[in-house]
Specification:
Elements lengths: L5 H23 L2 H8 L3 H4 L6 H12 L19 H11 L4 H7 L7 H30 L3 H28 L9 H16 L13 H16 L5 H5 L1
Helix pairs in contact: 1-2, 1-4, 1-7, 4-5, 5-8, 6-7, 6-8, 7-8, 7-9, 7-10, 8-9, 9-10
Amino acid sequence: MSRLTPRERLTTIASAATEDFRRLGYRGTRTADVAARAGISAGSLFNYVESKEALFHLVFINGLGLLSELPPVLPLRTPEPGETYALVARAFAEAPRSRLQSALATSEPADASQELREIVEELYRLVERNWPLLAVIERCAAELSELDAIWFGEARPAVFDELTEYLERRTASGLLRAMPDGRVAARVVIESVAWFAWHRREGRDASLYDDEAVRRTVVEFICAALVPESSPMEDES
């Protein structure tokens, strides 16, 4: 059996650390346990990461696909104060929500139903692709105030605000079905996406359903709830 390269070993360590941080939180995660999960000794772990802080930083570097940009010098150094949080904040700021943002810049879509479908699909795929990191952030935010401020104070509210504005605009134009409260409707959409794309994977329901069938069903369900049976634009065509 061939030995892992240092980069491969870092990836293995990052995966093990992601699992423990998302389940146990920051304080509950022990470097010795991460090492055991990665198949190395507790002492060997520090040949790859300098500290627990560096291990936490590695989780985000790996999850964001930035491992190849690391300098080839090991162990990975302890990040500067605030460096990990800046990395997380930048990732959220640059997260692709192009379909939702372009919809907000458009007053009269060619097809409101298709527009909504693309927005929900984009959000679903974003959560599905990044759920392990999101789980780490949400679990550790209870212990790390800086992370709490980024996740609960900035990132989540920003998406809720954008989707609320979108739904209220399209409802006012008669293109989507009116709901008693636009913010609640946006929350229903996002929480539905989050549960099926992310939270179900953390429990016993993970293997009950086919992933693609789940995605299609969630998208269809949301669209069926919000798109009128006959929209004004459809009547004109």
